[in-house]
């Protein structure tokens, strides 16, 4: 796998090496050894999958300490714009984001460390989204910031009249009204 660093420390894009021939393709979607060599030591404990239609926006979610999570995300069908927002107090990149298009064709993966809010918007008719987490989901630790916060400067590539959000995701605070439970010293994974 090739690891592409982003403008925020710890957030990386992973491109697998794909072997194609007349029969189709093959690639290794995850290697613990290679991930630890190129990104960092981590142990994933839970895999999740969601299916969504065009215009669905999910996020921007995180888990509060002590249930914080790092995520390794990918799309196996369709296309999404995937985003990580730095919500670590005193971070030089606090409130900044990294956005990457993940598709069934590019096979890219996106690593979102602890201390970041995560969300995505579905750009295709339908998308199947998979992610690995390094901590178990804890509903009592659920947190979020508004996916529609204009101050974040995220271009979701979805007209707002086509956006579909859960009721929960419409109630998250704006970043300026948010008291982050994370600081710059959080272990990213």
Question: What is the total number of structural domains?
Answer: 1
Please state the structural category: mainly beta
Strand content: 35-45%
Strand order of the largest sheet: 1-2-11-7-13-5
Briefly, what CATH class? Answer: Mainly Beta
The major beta sheet can be summarized as: 6 strands, antiparallel
| Number of helical segments with 4 or more residues | 1
Which CATH architecture is right?
Sandwich
Architecture overview:
Homodimer. Keywords: Isomerase. GO terms for molecular function: dTDP-4-dehydrorhamnose 3,5-epimerase activity. Pfam families: dTDP_sugar_isom (PF00908). This protein is mainly beta. It has one domain: Sandwich (Jelly Rolls). Helices cover 4% and strands 41% of the residues. The strands form four sheets. The chain has a six-stranded antiparallel sheet with strand order 1-2-11-7-13-5, with no helix packed on it. A five-stranded antiparallel sheet has the order 10-8-12-6-14, with no helix packed on it. A two-stranded antiparallel ribbon has the order 3-4. β3 and β4 form a beta hairpin. The chain is globular and about 55 Å long.
């Amino acid at each position: 796998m090739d690891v592409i660093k982003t403008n925020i420390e710890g957030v990386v894009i992973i491109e697998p090496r794909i072997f194609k021939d007349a029969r189709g393709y093959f690639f290794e979607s995850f290697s613990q050894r290679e991930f630890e060599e190129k990104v960092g030591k981590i142990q994933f404990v839970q895999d999740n999958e969601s299916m969504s239609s065009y215009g669905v926006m999910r996020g921007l979610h995180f888990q509060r300490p002590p249930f914080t999570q790092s995520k390794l995300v990918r799309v196996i069908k369709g296309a999404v714009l995937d985003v990580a927002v730095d919500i670590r107090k005193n971070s030089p990149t606090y409130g900044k984001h990294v956005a990457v298009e993940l598709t069934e064709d590019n096979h890219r993966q996106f690593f979102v460390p602890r201390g970041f809010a995560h969300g995505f918007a579905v750009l295709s008719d339908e998308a199947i989204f998979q992610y690995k987490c390094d901590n178990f989901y804890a509903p009592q630790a659920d947190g979020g910031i508004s996916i529609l916060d204009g101050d974040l400067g995220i271009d979701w590539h979805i007209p707002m009249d086509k956006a579909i959000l859960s009721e929960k995701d419409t109630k998250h605070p704006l970043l300026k009204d948010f008291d982050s439970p994370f600081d710059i010293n959080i272990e990213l994974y």
